[in-house]
Fold:
Amino acid sequence: MDLDTLITIAPNLFLPAAFAGVFLKAMLLGLGVAAPVGPMAFLCMRRTLAGGWRLGLATGVGIASGDGVYAGVAALGLTEVSAFVADHGRPLHLAAGLFLAWLAVAALRLKPPAADSRPVVSAPCPYPGPGVPPSC
Structure:
């Protein structure tokens, strides 16, 4: 390698300031994509507060798995996925049907919650006036 080639390549080899800036922007963009405040985040928070950290973790893993499937479909392309589904349609339908049957049996085995014996008391509307709906 001659000196002229090294001089033209060397500035592109060592750009720590530019790399750090791009890396920081990529990290912020990744955080914005990975932690959106939306319905799935609220579902995860609600289930964590209601059932503990294990239930919240299981919910988060399920959400991440679904996102991973979507990312895999996008990465492989719809033609590859549709070809796989066409080739393995019958076993996939059987597995989906068994899963739905399992969900139905699990739902039927749940015991209904106990009826609350306390009377329902309705509170008056705290802000009566113009612009307040009549159902308040």
